Amino acid sequence: MALTLPLTLSPSKVSAFKNCALAFRFSVIDRLPEPPSAAAVKGTIVHRALERLYCGEPAERTLPAALSALGQAFDEAVEVDPEYAELGLGGEEAEELRADAEQLVRRYFEMEDPTTVRPIGIELLLEARLDGVRLRGIIDRLELDGDGELVVTDYKTGRAPSPRYEQGRFGGVHFYAFLCEAMLGRRPARVQLLYLGDGTTIVAVPSEQSVRGLERRVAALWHAVVRACATDDFRPHPGPLCEWCSFQSYCPSFGGDPARALRDERVPGGV
């Protein structure tokens, strides 16, 4: 039975399919719910705080202002974010999450001076078509450097990857570069990844070759998604990431049955 194609591809979806086609199917096509994680909720709160910070004038982008924005973002999550509510945090756990988020915001100020940044877009949604699929990405911050060149900044609330996994992060870098080139007519002079977890900044300089290479790889991946949907052939790829996968009970690599996933979703209280 043919499955419905996803409407868009994003850097996270591209990475998900490359990591494990079956998990991609469960998440993107079947849209099975996944339990929220404290790390993801914390990342959302920190991103929201930095977004609020950059709504102010340069002179107003101070650490006290950022901490105030963080408090507002945290209160907002407590009041309206269903993922935060689903975590079911107790008082001490909530305070620990808030303290961890504050540490990330403080570390951000150790990494750059926000009063010197010239943003032209915050949480900027970009979309472009490539080979029959709509590519979509949200840029945390788009700015102009001293020479008037575009710079893409992406906040990461975890630690920088080891050299073994670092290259995989650059796929998103070239993805953003392609979107800027397609929609704005200009390729960024650089893309910088700010890892607030350990204060590491990774900078990549997109080139004509790297962006065209991204186009070829994404087009090939999209054709693989189309074939997999047409034949309902999404295969698992066991590896280190399985430890954090919420679909193990449906995965044949762990004795599960993929067909049971949708059946369970239709049954109240299903596993």
Helical region count?
9
- H and E order: EHHHHHHEEEHEEHH
Spatial shape: globular
Give the distance, in angstroms, between the N- and C-terminal Cα atoms: 24 Å
* Beta-strand proportion: 15-25%
**According to CATH, what is the topology of the largest domain?**
Lambda Exonuclease, Chain A
Count of discrete structural domains? 2
**Helix fraction bin:** 40-55%
What number is the mean pLDDT? 92
Low-confidence stretches: 267-271
Q: What structural class results from the helix and strand content?
A: alpha/beta
* Largest sheet composition: 6 strands, mixed
**Total DSSP E strands:** 6
If you had to describe this structure to a student in words, what would you say it looks like?
- This protein is α/β, with parallel strands linked by helices.
- It has 9 helices and 6 strands.
- It folds into 2 domains: 187 residues, Lambda Exonuclease, Chain A (Alpha-Beta Complex); 77 residues, no CATH class.
- α3 crosses α4.
- The protein is globular and about 55 Å long.
- The two termini are 24 Å apart.
